[in-house]
Amino acid sequence: MNEQTRAYWRYEYDVAAKYMIPLLEQWGVSLRDAAVIDVGCGEGGGLCAMYDAGAVRCDGFDIEPGRVEAALQLKGDRPITLMTGNLYDEHPPFSGEHYDLVVLHDVFEHLDFKEAVMNKLAAYAKPSGYVMITFPPYFSAYGAHQQLLNTQWAKIPYIHLVPFALPTILPRLKNEHPHIVQEILKLGRLKMGMKRFETIVRQCGLRIGGKQAYFISPNHIRFGLKPLPAGKIAEIPILGEVMCTGVVYVLAKG
Q1: Are 130 and 100 in contact (CB under 8 A)?
Q2: pTM, full prediction
Q3: pLDDT, the chain, mean
């Protein structure tokens, strides 16, 4: 277990404890005695924070075995159940189980077949349950995750919105990890913005129970930045999509 992994677990924990859980409480979603599943749980810091906040059953799974192994070590003696698995599987982990809260933290923007994914997430929720989804809107400064590249000029904010930048220049960059290049190209194909997300929510028969967009996302605390809510600017067409670096939604059935 290296220090970087421990630090990432602490970051996951802090984002959930300091920002996600207070938002849930503000929107009337209590974790007291709740059952929670974290889809794409990473190192499990978020689940640990939710257990410490009063959830009595916490389950999670991630597609990366190494991250699940780290989560198993870092959860301590908390009775949290963790598995390796893929949401795209016909029967993903914990299929048939139902929860008060389903969490998908900064994963949705990466996934194909978004309507099918949304329906799978909703299937985990009890009739009275909620789904919490967070993601960075694609049209924001780093919506393609270009900050992960090694080439310095390619990290320029909004460069992914230049028409020829992704399909023409990105594949020709030297010393870049092929997986990261492919993921950035994928994000450019999917273009997950807030307006499109809300359309998918309606198409899947869900309703928005809470929304909080940020100029500076809670995820940026790992860079020493303080989150800054966007307020009503997030609802201004185009401007909100461009200015907001992160958004949190809570969805309900019916």
Answers
A1: yes
A2: 0.95
A3: 96
